[in-house]
Amino acid sequence: MRLELHKVHITGLAFADTTHVSSGTLYVNKSEAEELIAEDRRFAKVSLDLTSPGDSVRIIPVKDVVEPRVKIGKNNYFPGFCAPMQKAGTGETLVLDGAAVVTCGPIVAFQEGFIDMSGPAAPYSPFSATHNVVLSVEPVDNLEKHQYEAALREAGLKLSVYLAKCAAETGAKADEVKVFEKGDTFEESQKYPDLPKVIYVCMNITQGLLHDTYVYANDLRPSLPTLLHPNEVLDGAMVSGNCVSACDKNTTWHHVHNPIVQALYARHGKEINFLGMIPTQESTVLAGKLRAATMNLSIAQQLGADGVIVSEEGYGNPDTDLCLNAKYFEDAGIKSVVVSDESSGTDGASQSLADATPELTGFISTGNVNEMIEVPAMDKVIGYKEAISLLSGGAEESLRPDGSMYVELQSIIASTAEIGFNKLGCEWI
Question: In whole angstroms, what is the distance from residue 243 CA to residue 110 CA?
Answer without folding.
Answer: 9
